[in-house]
Amino acid sequence: MQLKFTAGGPPAQPNMNNPVAAPGLPIGPGDLEKLSRWVPEKEMALLAEICDRAERDPDLTRPALLLCRAYAERVARMLDQDPFPTVTQKISDRLRRLHSENGL
Description:
The chain is mainly alpha-helical. Helices cover 59% and strands 0% of the residues.
């Protein structure tokens, strides 16, 4: 699936050579591709856009992580198992670290 961004300007493609995430985001394009199997295309495009913007704006790191975790939990409930437990663990660890660093 090619992820397309439609919000706020011309369509853009994520840089698939680098992770779609900033150093604060423990997810990469492969992780988003796995998630895209169970998330509607328009919602996946929004998620990819948020992760792409978090790459440039560290203030979006926490919202991007929360959104990724929410989608991962939704998929895990739907399948009655977590299809990518290491990624969800990395997301939770990073959120805990943000909480301790920034009190968020």
